[in-house]
Amino acid sequence: MNARALSLSTIASDLASLTKPRLSSLVLITTAGGMWLAPGALSPARAIATLLAIAGTVGAANAFNCYIERDIDRLMARTRNRPLPAGRMEPQVALWFGISLVAISLPTLAFEANVLTALLGFVALSSYVWIYTPLKARSYTAMLVGAVPGALPPLMGWTAVTGRIQWPGVLLFGILFFWQIPHFIAIALFLKDEYRAAGLKSLPLERGEQVSRAQLLGYVLALCLVALLPPLTGMAGWLYGAAALALNVVFVRLALQGFIGRLGNPWARKVFRFSLVYLTGIFAAFWIDAVLHR
């Protein structure tokens, strides 16, 4: 591979990294879940275009986040090798990359899905970039604000198909919202020192670790209640209900162990890892349950 090809490959890789692909892939999975569960269907071409447009909107939000937090990212081990803090990319490149993604993705979303879904995409992007991102340096309550744009994708998947905000879509939003809080708290616990070094606020730094463990347990309990509503409302059947119940029991037990035992970083990392298993399991159960009942 010649130097020019290597350079182009590096630039492409760095641009892709601005979109935070792992986070974006999780968003696409939950969006697709909302589309799959909604009554009716988009054509395959429109469904793919809608998913790509939502991916572009999420990628733009993440690119703007990287642009705004480039100085903070230099202070944290897990982010200092990103293109901007590492000096591999000029900040203006990231900014215009984000602007370009927005300019393409939101109109595409309005055209291929509907205006309501594009509006929800704009709300998600703007609240993430202009409220959540600057609030992280001021208050731990940023995690509550950040949970809103993070919870909108499955609702957007629902509205892309139906064109309306309905209770099943709101339930999907609720599951994602309450899932994110213990997920965020677990990260804030085992990255407490990095957050402090970067000047970011977090629940453990402002309220202490035991309060953090207590709130984590409280939000897990709230999540469990919301996650068990779909079978009771007819949105899902027995298979989803059984899977959700099993996952909830494990999550509550894990959160309770941490609170009672005042456990530290290894426990917080375990909570973080299980939260990913939990969300994957919940949406897999939704998908399989829907296949069995169609």
Beta fraction: under 5%
Main beta-sheet strand count, sense and barrel state: none
Query: Low-confidence parts lasting 5 or more residues at pLDDT below 50?
Result: none
- State the total count of DSSP E strands: 0
Q: Any idea what the CATH superfamily of the largest domain is called?
A: UbiA prenyltransferase
Helix share, percent: over 70%
Give the topology string: H per helix, E per strand. HHHHHHHHHHHHHH
Derived structural class: mainly alpha
Mean pLDDT: 93
> How many separate structural domains?
2
CATH class designation of the largest domain: Mainly Alpha
Shape: flat
Rg, Å, rounded:
20 Å
Terminal CA distance reads: 50 Å
CATH architecture of the largest domain: Orthogonal Bundle
Total helix count? Answer: 14
Enter the CATH topology name of the largest domain: Tetracycline Repressor, domain 2
